[in-house]
Amino acid sequence: MRISDAEEPLAARRRLVLAGVAGFVVGAGMIGVLWASTTAVSGPTADAKAACAALSRAQPLPEGRVGRGTLEPGVLQHIMAADALASAAAEVSSTYDDLADHIDGVRRMALSLNFADPNGRRHLAQAREICDTI
To answer: For residue range 86-100, what is the model confidence (pLDDT) as tens digits?
Structure first.
């Protein structure tokens, strides 16, 4: 059976449109994959960013010595989580050793419940400074 002359250009046009749409979809998919792979955060970097976020969520810290019951809920837990995440990042990449050391100093200050400790405050300032660069 032969296709009539009127149907032949229509069928050719459909194939051309279908090929164009398929090419667009494949191209957009490839661009998406390439974009996602260049913006993906590595394991230790993700841990360091999460540590900084956890430390940030513990803010604002009290200024002096406090009792455990007077702390806002979750402050110690956020600091402990920040310490664990920073340690994990430093274990994989030495780039984050300083961050882990300073957050550990903040953890020690928090566990003592003496938030006026000058060393702890120095560690907190240094940790915040490092977090701003990650």
So the answer is: 999 999 999 999 999
